[in-house]
């Protein structure tokens, strides 16, 4: 082999070696990089007021799949508000942490000097179904508004805030626990416990009042909950009729709701609690 051909052959081998090293490095870099994606959207509120300077917006992506467990925060962002609503937000998260069989929620809060002013009250899963446009509604926290002089009168737009809700209002079996501040116990020979369910997408409420099955309609907007007149069966029971009568009256008086953990409170139009319920899950 001539000396010139020998040089060409050596050059070819060097190029092959460099290309192989480069391809290996690129694969290694790709495999170690997280699958980063962006969540972006807006937060807004309906209250006609400007927030004080220095108000902080916090938005967090949470895993809420485990019933009764502590919420797992996947990613979050914090920013100081400027201007008027809506306020845009965006932050990154590792998409490999998102699993189809799990449930997620976007939680938003407005905080001023450590005090909670507003927060989101409805569950919003950006992945199920996939949200093309993410808009998070914020509602005023009752304790924050109560410091204002005008808060002595009932404000119809003031929402009752749900905190760390681990159960959803709809499609949950809500067991009646207390009525007008008194614990509810099953009467002797009572067939089943008093409860109700709100069927999402159907606008139907159904349940058992202690003696009779009932059914009706409902509407919900933010923390406002309205239950239409209830139609019930006409069974006569020796026991349970007193609780049932009070239960039906509470449903008629309900104007708001609040969820904390797995506990639901129904409130009247003056924001006074009427009854408490606990979410039940069955295997």
Automatic annotation (TrEMBL):
This protein's record includes keyword Cytoplasm: no
Keywords carried by this UniProt record: Signal
Signal peptide positions on this chain: 1-22
Residue ranges occupied by any DUF306 domain in the UniProt entry: 168-277
Name assigned to this protein: DUF306 domain-containing protein
Annotated organism of origin: marine gamma proteobacterium HTCC2143
